[in-house]
Structure formats: structure tokens, C-alpha cells
Amino acid sequence: MMNRLKQMFGNRRSLSGENPANGHRQPEPGESGFTLLELIITLTIIAILVAGTVPFAHNMIKREKEMELRRSLREIRKAIDSFHNQCLPMRQGNSLQASEWPEDCYPQSLESLVEGFEPQNPPNTYVRFLRRVPIDPFTGRSDSWGLRSTEDDPFSTGSGRVSQTNGIFDVYSTASGKALDGTEYSKW
Fold it and tell me: Which of 5, 9, 71, 104 is 20 to 30 A removed from 151 (C-alpha atoms)?
């Protein structure tokens, strides 16, 4: 009886590595591998995970660009307000040459916020409002900002009617498309 059990369930092997009891090859110690079914299941799980993360990553990138656009608009608008607040008292005090500045004391270009101006009083000072014109993250350019003058409607896409009497009152992005919240970028 014992010999019969050893014959059926024993771990006797032939020289080819086959178990004489069931005819299947037993792996040698240190020998391992995956079956085809295990590989297919693993690849399917990975594909499902990747398919779920791609839209999430796309939305994260778009959200980061939107945050950068908001920061850039805030920076430019703050510089325009600072320009206006600096220019107005100097213009009223006649420390600026009246012919060089818009009557409404708003800048005539975004570059003038970078260039700044040198007031006559106090001497040897130079006032700048931006280090550089920010880049619109959706257009990838710093010269693509839409301009609104003091004559334009606050919510229009602007005519860019910047002149000696009408400076830049506001800026907006010229990028087409809608934000994740459904608003158009040009309305920000």
C-alpha cells in the first residue's frame, strides 16, 4: 500500500524532469515564470488604470494653465492700477510732461509698464511696474493679450483703441476655448 501511494503521489522524477505520476514537468528549484493568463490579466489591469488617469492628468494640466492665466491677468491688472495711481498725482502736480502721458493716466502699451518712467520729482528715480510682460499660457505668447481702452465696454473683447487720450484700462486673454468651469477665457 505504501509503495502504491509513493508511486501515485511521490516526488520521483525521471531524467527529463517529468513526474511519472501525472506526466507534467515540475519546475526545478529557482526556476519560475508567469503563465500567459497571468500576463494578460496584469496588462488588462494596467490598461484600465492608465485609461482612468489620462483624463485626470489632462484636467490637471488645464487647471494649472488656468491658474497661471489668472496669475498673469492679476499681475498685469495690478501693474496697470499702480501705473495709474503713480501717474495721476504726478500729472496733477505737473511733475510729468503733459504731452508724454495719456490724459487718463493709463499706459499706452504693456511694454510701457516694463519700461516704466522717470519722474522729474524726485530726481534720479525710475519707476517700473513689470519685470516683463507675462506670457499667456494658452497662446504661449506675451504679445497676444487683448487690450481694452477706457472707451471700451468692460466686458467687450476690446477694440484696442489705445490712443493719447485713452490708455490701456484692462487686458484679457485672446485664447479661444472655455475653462473647466464653463466660462470663456476672454471673459476673465
Answer: 71
